[in-house]
Design brief:
single chain, Rossmann fold, four-stranded parallel sheet, flat, Cobalt-precorrin-4 Transmethylase, domain 1, alpha/beta, binds iron/sulfur cluster
Length: 297
């Protein structure tokens, strides 16, 4: 069994910077992150150890005991940012610049007279941040939801959640256009570059491998997208949070195992998964040798 690592995988700069900033903030004063900084339990444990408290964007200011509050890399609406700034708390914002780009893109479209449509998962924190300032927005995730866009909207501006599969987004934009042959559909591509790189690398990985292991949090949207995509490409796909989740039996038939990871996964977690898979390779070899000796005897 051979192990192949994707050419792009794991933690993106947006998440890495958000974690580093939060750790620096927590060294100077007590801090509460308003939400899950990243959807990854290993990172979460490290932040707990650094004394970072977890709140939520829906927390009341009087419920937050720390001096500072921190917005996550997923971003927040301007109205939410402004209302926290009025509470007297020190406010720190670790929103990824590429999420900010998605906010500004939607704003530009609305200012230019386009009705806002967002492609993404309605309840995801990034999407909630995107649409809160534009309550008219329609969020769609698949073709069946195009019917939710009001029929009299003829000038439509589309952006997407930064971690959506780019081919899925482009396909949906085409379908929205087809649903309004007389209308105008303007799309600004807000799928981020690290996501695109990881998706492209996964395509290459799945073409070489019969099995793919995706490392990342169970509630991480982009990790789930990678696992679904690997499966769509014909590989047997497993999603794990850590090396402890791996099982030797999964790889009984595997010859080429690809490894990739979501954008909030630490490098050390990926390396632990690779090391465990290498142990499995040795174990499979030992079992094969044992079977051959048994056959001879
Ligand atoms: S996945 Fe993309 S948008 Fe999200 S934090 Fe990472 S780089 Fe930024």
């Amino acid at each position: 069994m051979k192990i192949h690592l994707a050419s792009h995988y794991g933690m993106c700069f947006g998440v890495r910077d958000a974690i580093a900033q939060t750790q620096e903030i927590a060294e100077i004063q007590s801090a509460t992150v308003l939400g899950e900084l990243v959807h990854n339990p290993v990172v979460q444990k490290k932040l707990d150890a650094a004394g970072v408290a977890i709140g939520s964007l829906d927390s009341k200011p009087q419920e937050i005991k720390s001096e500072a509050v921190v917005f996550t890399a997923h971003g927040v609406a301007d109205s939410v940012r402004n209302s926290w700034a009025e509470t007297g708390k020190k406010v720190f914002d670790t929103t990824c610049p590429l999420v900010k780009k998605a906010h500004r893109s939607l704003e530009c479209l609305v200012l230019a007279g386009f009705k806002p449509v967002v492609i993404g998962t309605r309840d995801h924190v990034e999407v909630r941040g995107l649409i809160t300032d534009f309550p008219e927005s329609i969020v769609i995730i698949d073709e069946s939801e195009i019917a939710n866009i009001p029929g009299d909207w003829q000038k439509i501006g589309v952006v997407s959640q930064t971690t959506q599969p780019v081919s899925h987004v482009e396909n949906l934009v085409g379908k929205i256009g087809e649903s309004r042959p007389e209308g105008e559909v303007k799309f600004i591509d807000t799928v981020c570059k690290p996501t695109k790189n990881r998706q492209q690398a996964l395509n290459e990985l799945a073409s070489q491998c019969d099995t793919v292991v995706v490392v990342g949090g169970n509630n991480s949207n982009n990790t789930r997208q990678l696992a679904n995509r690997a499966s769509d490409l014909g590989a047997v796909a497993f999603q794990v949070e850590t090396a402890d989740d791996l099982k030797l039996a999964w790889f009984a038939e595997s010859q080429h195992v690809g490894v990739t990871a979501g954008t909030s996964t630490l490098e050390e977690t990926v390396q632990e998964v690779v090391a465990q898979l290498e142990e499995f390779t040795k174990e499979k070899r030992r079992l094969m040798l044992f079977d051959s000796l048994k056959a001879i005897a």
